[in-house]
Amino acid sequence: MPASVVPVLMYHHVSPTPGLITVSPAHFAAQMCWLKRHGYTTLTLDALAGFLAGEPVPAKSVVISFDDGYLDNWVYAHPVLEQYGLHAVLFLITRWLGEGPLRPHAGQGNTPLPACLSHHAGKTAIDAGQTDLVMMRWSEVLAARDAGTFEFHSHTHTHNRWDKIYPGDADNKSKALAHDLASSRNLLTERLGEVSSHLCWPQGYYDDDYIRVAEAAGFRHLYTTEPGVVGADSMASRLPRIVVKDRGLGWFAPRMWAYRQPALARWYLGRKSR
Ligand SMILES: [Zn+2]
Fold it and tell me: Which of 92, 116, 187, 217 could form an SS bridge with 72, CB 3.0 to 4.6 Å?
């Protein structure tokens, strides 16, 4: 039986430094081990696009998505994905990626690991121009891609909320977003040799102008933060995702089971999460 729905899981940080949108390395490893042990297929976004176009995917299919491109994704998530042979997708804020050699990641013996800041401290560092302390480097992006642990897509170039910068000014908002998306596409093409049709909205915000501009720029699959599972009849321009909490298998396993069944998934995602 092929899948009738596919959950797109959403992560930000995987780090021992606690924070609002952070999953601990232990919980992340347990969640990934569970997916592996239960025979899940971690889909590429190409495969998800195929599913939306009517191609079958295995019954136990999931998309593991990350937003922004934090250093801790390389240090703590990459080695776990590699260990279990799982594949994730990462939506990059392309302007924030730095230059320089690979930094150590977990699982490399006693090599000291780079410090990973909390979400809050990371914001402060980025505002102070210390983006390299917080974000991945292009070398790490390429290494993760070559290892098959991550594939990379756009999360815009600047992560700016143009609707807030130009309130009530649809024309300038749309122009700024178009420029932002073009910059992101150009840089991804320059660095990775390709750019995809998949885009994730900063802070989950979008409106009709945003969708129009993104589609004109060449994006067809737009990822939101609205909770839900993706069905074959989902609109490509409004794909839902599911926040994964910093919780163990007692939280994760029943949800993964429910997300395979449309009615149960709605029940789980519709009620207030604990
Ligand atoms: Zn983001």
Answer: 116
